[in-house]
Amino acid sequence: MDDSYGETGCVASELNVIPAPSRVELTGGSGPFSGNVRTDVDPSLGPEAYRLTVSADGAGIVGGDEAGVFWGRQTLRQMLGPEAFRRAPTAREPVTVPYVIVEDRPRFAWRGFMLDVARHFLPKDDVLRYVDLLAAHKLNVLHLHLTDDQGWRVEIRRHPRLTETGAWRRRTRLGWGTPPLWDERPHGGFYTQDDLREIVAYAAERHVTVVPEIDLPGHSQAAIAAYPELGNTDVVDTAALEVWTDWGITRNVLAPTDAVVRFYEDVLDEVLAVFPGRFVHIGGDECAKDQWRESPTAQARIRELGLENEDDLQSWMIRHFAHWLAARGRRLIGWDEILEGGLADGAAVMCWRWYAGGIAAAQAGHSVVMCPQQEVYLDHVQAHGPDEPVPFGWVHTLEDVYRFEPVPPRLAGTPYAANIIGAQANLWTEVAENRGRVDYQAFPRLVAFAEVAWSRLPGPDERDFGDFERRMNAAHYARLDALGVGYRPPTGPHPWQQRPGIPGRMHNKPRKTWRMAT
Ligand code: TNX
């Protein structure tokens, strides 16, 4: 994946399945993809595109590049039946597949999934498993949210206390109830740099790019707990702060000083050495400005830099890192708040609040990844009803996600649409504390999302959700079973997937749809 998304951003995909009434046995080799499965690369097909042909000679996959060949293999795997999704074969019968020609290419170059491993740490093996799950669904970006108020999850050798202190918290708020409920067990964990190199390499073998996020200047209390001098020491006793045990937006944010900027350059130096991808996410969301308003140091900084206010101070910090990353051949990406106060050229925006930020950013020439919380936040509850575990946010059903349209209607048909380089589904983990909860929130909705991000579907109202549901029931739930995914069954949670007694928090403002917002 490179950053020439403009060319491939919104190209129509052509999926031509021409079934013929014959089948061929796939033979030879130790796995389903060897033997009489031939592969080749023909760049004229374009990035990530493939043509899959099954005939009397076996299967042939021609990819526009190696990624295209790999996506073609995933389609072939789907044709082999659910067994092909197990880690080892169980059936003795020969595998036969129907004659077919599939010509296929992705609609978007960035087809992402964000996993928040900061609020709850997910062990390395679970992350590797998610890489496999993304690859099986032709998703190609894993965005790891590595730092937040509640935990710092990446080893930084120059600043070891980030993980010694910042990688664990004393206890954890359970759900969102009042009065709060607490799980009194300490929670924590972090990835060594070699763990992350392993994840990056494993993902690369599957044509998935890992995008690291180091969130600043808000969502940084774990770092401040580790190094109190990173905080606004002139207004708060930062030495008394601990890694946050609660959820929400804290007042404790980084101080806007040169020393803090240098510290984060050290951090990013090490991050760049581990993550070779072009994009580096620096957060930028939900930075409370209370302490900057009260802090003489922050106020002096505003005057010294000739800025108007605290928002400009955040903008100054983000621009600094945009230039710093650009000088090292990388591109900054951040949450849509980074638009406020103006953004450096070349920086990209992840639009999570309605569609407005995405529209403004695309019109200003920035690349945009659309991931509005009103549509594709997978931490939000997926059905009404009393049995849903720890219901949070708005209800986004499987059908809602299937009807998500990444290109805001106002941009459709304009040159700015090409700036929408892709879409992403985000899974925050305040109330998803382990792999089982993550699976339940992600699936089956991530399947609907993957189809939206890959395929050229009709407009949201015209999409045939009934057909998607039929394909889920006829084939895909069985594949998820074979993969061992703890998805939400269509009839509701299994008893062991429920969380009675842990209250959630639903958003009470109405959920605006893309139609209302644009
Ligand atoms: C907003 S989305 C956040 C996260 C929360 C999430 C919960 C974003 C950039 N910030 O810190 O976990 O809502 O849905």
From TrEMBL:
Q: Which GO terms describe its cellular component?
A: membrane
Tell me the Pfam families matching this sequence. Answer: Glyco_hydro_20, Glyco_hydro_20b
Keywords, comma-separated and alphabetical? Glycosidase, Hydrolase
> Recorded GO terms, molecular function?
beta-N-acetylhexosaminidase activity
Can you tell me which residues form the catalytic site? 286 (proton donor)
What is one Gene Ontology biological process annotated in the Swiss-Prot or TrEMBL record? glycosaminoglycan metabolic process
State its Enzyme Commission number(s).
3.2.1.52
Q: Does the keyword Hydrolase apply?
A: yes
The Beta-hexosaminidase bacterial type N-terminal domain covers which part of the protein?
28-104
**Domain (Glycoside hydrolase family 20 catalytic): residue spans on this chain:** 108-456
Bias kind Basic residues: ranges: 506-518
Q: Which reaction does it catalyse?
A: Hydrolysis of terminal non-reducing N-acetyl-D-hexosamine residues in N-acetyl-beta-D-hexosaminides
- What SUPFAM superfamilies does the entry give? (Trans)glycosidases, beta-N-acetylhexosaminidase-like domain
- What segment(s) does the record annotate as region Disordered? 492-518
Could you tell me which InterPro entries the record lists for this protein?
Answer: Beta_hexosaminidase_sua/sub (IPR025705), GH (IPR017853), Glyco_hydro_20_cat (IPR015883), Hex-like_dom2 (IPR029018), HEX_bac_N (IPR015882)
The similarity comment for this entry is: Belongs to the glycosyl hydrolase 20 family.
Kindly provide the name given to this protein in its UniProt entry: beta-N-acetylhexosaminidase
